[in-house]
Write a structure and sequence with these properties.
Elements lengths: L3 E6 L1 E2 L2 E2 L6 H8 L1 H5 L6 E4 L9 H21 L3 E6 L4 H9 L4 E6 L20 H5 L5 H7 L10 E6 L6 H8 L2 E4 L6 H9 L4 E7 L21 H14 L2 E7 L10 H14 L9
Parallel strand pairs: 1-4, 1-5, 5-10, 6-7, 6-9, 7-8, 9-10
Antiparallel strand pairs: 2-3
Length: 284
């Protein structure tokens, strides 16, 4: 039996196979399952809305509930769930499925995703995903998904950012979220070690736009900077090696901007880096 279960969620804000919603299938076509475990190919679960008439928040809730159940079941079976999703809001279903007493988050992203409806410039749900995970907004959404609690902000590491909205930095500082920009990762190992002593499970979130766009152009945000791919591989390997990672979510790959397959190849390298450090024992 493979150590992993891959959960494919091909949606952009509840719309199937649109924009970043096309990313999960492209990653699978490129060999995401084999990158995780080439000897024993992981089970792949394909999440689709059960109510095809559901739109907007109703569709997001439907999908997130299914993610929650799939993550919970995989962990109970001694496997590691790897969610391939379009949007960052998939974190809410994934976190709800971990069901740990004290969960931490390592969030790799070009953005903070730490706005609330009051501070957001765009109103985009994705830009509030991390804030929702710690309980700062969208409590109704978390309750509908079935989440039992929130993550303490001091148990969150936001790494690799390079584009924060004006209100996000003061909010991060006030909340006590540890954060480092794309070119401030020298002490990442110390931050990871410090988190290890405070949590019994970790959710690892990988937004593909945290990478350098020269190596990973297949994202909606391609601003200058970003984490070089070789640095990202070592960072993810260290996270999985040092922390009790219970579930992983890879998001925001848009094949429309990746005609040469560079981002797909980068995604496979990141999956191989994390798989190389996952032990063969069950996560619980």
């Amino acid at each position: 039996m493979s150590r992993f279960v891959v959960i494919e969620v091909p949606y952009h804000l509840g719309l199937e196979d649109t924009g970043v919603g096309r990313g999960p299938a492209r990653l699978l076509h490129a060999g995401a399952d084999r990158a995780l475990d080439g000897d024993s190919c992981p089970t792949v679960l394909h999440v689709r809305t059960r109510d095809r008439t559901a739109v907007g928040m109703d569709a997001i809730v439907d999908l997130s509930r299914q993610i929650r159940a799939a993550v919970r079941d995989a962990i109970a079976d001694g496997e590691w769930p790897v969610v391939l999703a379009g949007n960052c809001n998939a974190c809410l279903g994934t976190l709800a499925g971990i069901e740990s007493e004290c969960t931490g988050i390592v969030w790799l992203d070009a953005h903070g995703d730490f706005n609330t409806p009051e501070t957001s410039l765009s109103g985009a749900l994705d830009g509030m995903a991390l804030a929702a995970a710690i309980g700062d907004c969208h409590e109704d959404l978390r309750e509908r998904i079935g989440g039992q609690g929130t993550v303490r902000p001091q148990d969150v590491l936001l790494l690799g950012w390079r584009d924060l909205d004006p209100a996000e930095m003061p909010r991060l500082q006030a909340a006590g979220v540890m954060h480092r920009g794309a070119h401030e990762l020298e002490d990442a190992a110390a931050l990871i070690a410090n988190l290890r002593g405070r949590v019994d499970a970790v959710y690892l979130h990988v937004d593909m736009d945290f990478l350098d766009p020269k190596e990973s152009p297949g994202v909606n945000f391609r601003g200058p900077g970003g984490v070089p791919l070789d640095v990202a591989e070592k960072l993810i390997a260290a996270i999985v090696r040092e922390l009790p990672v219970a579930a992983v979510c890879v998001t925001n790959y848009n094949p429309e901007y990746d005609p040469e397959g560079l981002t797909a190849a980068a995604g496979l390298r990141l999956l191989r880096a994390m798989a190389s450090e996952f032990p063969s024992r069950a996560p619980r």
